[in-house]
Structures are given as C-alpha cells and as structure tokens.
Specification:
About 30% of the residues lie in helices and about 25% in strands. It is of the alpha/beta class. Strand 4 and strand 5 form a beta hairpin.
Length: about 250
C-alpha cells in the first residue's frame, strides 16, 4: 500500500508528536481507516518531507510521531506565475490541480470581463479557501514538498499594470498571453526565459481589448496549435509545453 502524504500547517521536527488537523484526520482515519503504527509522510512546505508513525487513531482525534526528516527539493526549475481567468466550478479546480502538478510557482486568479461572479467578494473568499484545498491536495498527490503561492483574486487590468513589479517579477521575465489568432506558438520563442508569467482567459477566452492590453503591457501573444482549447485544457497544454521546453518535465 502506498504511504499517504499529508500536508500539515505546523512546524515539524524529528521526535516531535503532532496532532493531525481535521482534514488530515478525516482522510487518514475515517477514509483510509489507518490504525496505530501505520506509516505516514508529512510535509509543511519547508522543502522537506518527514517520515512519521501514527501513534493515535481514535474516532475524533489522531496524532503522529515524526521519525526522520528527508530533504527532497521539489521546487520547479523554472519559476512560472499562472494568471488564470477565474472559471466556473470544476473547471477552475481542474486547472489549479493540474497547474500544481505541472510545477507552477505562483497562481494569480484574475477577474476578466467574462468572469462570472467576479464582483462577489464573499463568494470569492469562499472560493479562495476551496482553491487552497485543491492546491494542497494536488501537492499531496504529486509529491510536491513546496506549496505554490495562491494570491488573492484581482481585476485583470490591475494585474496587467503591475505584473512586472509584483510577486514573481524578474528583469528577464517573459510574459505570455494565449491568443488563438497569434502568428506563432511557444516553439517560436528563441531565447530561454528566466521566469514566465502566463495569462489564460476563462470560459469564452479573453476579449480582444484584454489581449490588446496584455500586448501593450509587454506580453507576447502565443497560440496552441490550430484548435481553440477550453480554459482548463489550455492551461495544462501550455504549462506542459513550457516545462518541456525550458523547465524540468522529463528530467
């Protein structure tokens, strides 16, 4: 049986006994039905993972003892910030899950003209909590010991005006915007980027003037072949090509 990997938002140290939070307890004890003595792998985003043993597995509470710290650097070789137009329900979840698996460093949800519910702050706060859970679950599944930074949603126009000076900005950062009318794809970019900002629209894509503003702010329009992809497919395809060309996919 595969040893479960669990994220805990607590300091971890060898020899320490830690209580499992409600989310991890529910998965380990109630879903997997593990009992005392079962092995676990814990991580908290500090760049390592910790082998542990389940020492308490009761109905309402559980705990583990940390046995060893195993340094294992899973940070992406190429820093990529994904600016994802907020999509509906499962489409957004799928996009964030696969982006995490494909090694994005940072996720910036953006509110575009075609975003539904972008002006409902209370709903966005709830979705942020949900999205963080999606990202953490993806890290647990794919073996990442680092957690991609999930930034609060912001209007696309504001993000475009600040992306070169905001989180993840670097002097040699390459800005890319997906545009089905672009004249070339990712393989047409000759210089190896030091970091990337990738902008993807929501359902229905970005409007023409939004793409125009992105280009005005220095982003390069690129396409993904002759077909128009759904927002959740476009992110996966673009990130896979980016990682294959300049990142660590295939290492």
């Amino acid at each position: 049986m595969r040893v479960p990997r669990c994220y805990l938002d607590h300091p971890l140290a060898v020899g320490r006994e830690v209580a499992l939070d409600e989310r991890v307890h529910r998965h380990v004890v109630q879903v997997l039905r593990l009992r005392t003595g079962a092995p676990l792998i814990l991580f908290n985003g500090d760049g390592a993972e910790y082998t542990a043993t389940l020492i308490q597995a009761e109905r309402r509470a559980s705990a583990a003892r940390i046995e060893a710290r195993v340094p294992r650097d899973t940070r992406p070789a190429l820093p990529v910030t994904l600016a994802q137009g907020i999509a509906k329900g499962d489409r957004m979840d799928y996009g964030l899950q696969k982006a995490t698996e494909l090694g994005v460093s940072r996720i910036q949800p953006v509110i575009t003209r075609r975003t539904v519910g972008g002006d409902d702050e209370r709903r966005l706060d709830k979705r942020m909590t949900h999205w963080r859970g999606v990202v953490i679950s993806a890290c647990e599944q794919c073996g990442r010991n680092d957690i991609p930074e999930l930034l609060p949603p912001m209007p696309l126009t504001r993000w475009l005006g600040a992306y070169r000076s905001g989180p993840g900005a670097e002097e040699q950062a390459l800005g890319l915007v997906l545009d089905p009318r672009a004249t070339h794809g990712l393989t047409g970019i000759r210089d190896r980027p030091a970091s990337i900002h990738l902008l993807i629209g929501p359902e229905g894509g970005l409007e023409e003037n939004e793409i125009g503003q992105a280009i005005h702010e220095g982003m390069t329009p690129v396409r993904l072949g002759p077909r128009i992809l759904r927002t959740e497919t476009a992110g996966v395809a673009a990130l896979a090509v980016i990682q294959a060309l300049w990142g660590d996919l295939g290492d």
